[in-house]
Amino acid sequence: MELSESVQRGMQSLAHPSSFEQSSYQVLVDVSYRSLLSSAADPGVLDQPELKQIDQILLKQSHTAATTFILEAVKQNADKSTISSCLEELSFSADRIEIFFSTHQKHRKELERLLASIGRCPPKINDASWRLQYHVKNGQVDKVNEPFYLISLNTENKGPSEDINFTCTVEQLQDLVGKLKDAAKSVEKASQM
After folding, report:
1. Res. 123 pLDDT band, cuts 50 70 90
2. What are the residue ranges spanned by the domains of the chain?
3. Angle between helices 22-37 and 94-116 (to 10 degrees)
4. What is the pTM of this model?
């Protein structure tokens, strides 16, 4: 795995017993995985009693490096030998490598699901249908006399198709059509370069 210099420095700090005792090392590894998996950003995630005596700048650098390393390992689907050899290069002892890998195995599937849910491509439009409606009156005014369109887009995105329905006025529909034409021209220009 290729890691930036700052990630390597943070991981090397995490590897040294002088910076992190065994108990604080275990806690920081656990906290790093939990912070990636928690749905809400918890500002107190590093406020564990075992981490209080560690310099806050060093703690934050090591935490950032650990979470980056974890995400990179999951992204590359790294196995035990890859993770072990990478951690050995960063001066980790055998017992610290084992602690890291066992925690990694415990949370790996959840992290894979989390990363798989990020960055999905937008749905593809298969079909569009529309219907013209006419507002005669509404609850506040007796006469509105306004046309509007009911638009239905049939979309597909790695699974069953679903409909996206919305309404718009004539002006909004004209604006939408204009923007779609502009987008089509941009795509055409980009494909010719």
Report:
1. confident
2. 5-116, 124-192
3. 10
4. 0.61
**Mean pLDDT taken over the chain:** 86
User: Side chain identity at 72, as an amino acid letter?
Assistant: E
Instruction: Please give the structure tokens belonging to residue 13.
Output: 């700090």
Find the distance separating the first CA and the last CA of the chain, reported in whole Å: 34
What does the pLDDT look like over 162-172, one tens digit per residue? 888 999 988 99
Residue that is written with structure tokens 């912070």 in the block: 35
Any alpha helices (H) in the chain, and if so which ranges?
5-15, 22-37, 56-75, 80-89, 94-116, 170-192
Q: What's the DSSP call for residue 158?
A: S
Query: Do 14 and 28 contact (CB within 8 A), yes or no?
Result: yes
DSSP output for 15-59: H-TTTS-HHHHHHHHHHHHHHHH-SS--TTTT--GGGTTS-HHHH
Amino acid at 84: S
Angle among Cα 112, 117, 40 to the nearest 5 degrees reads 90
Q: How far apart, in whole angstroms, are the C-alpha atoms of residue 98 and residue 192? A: 53
Q: How far apart are CA 89 and CA 85, in angstroms?
A: 6
Tens digit of pLDDT for each residue in 64-102? 999 999 999 998 888 999 999 999 999 999 999 999 999
**Sole residue written with tokens 């049939």:** 154
What's the pLDDT at 119? Answer: 64
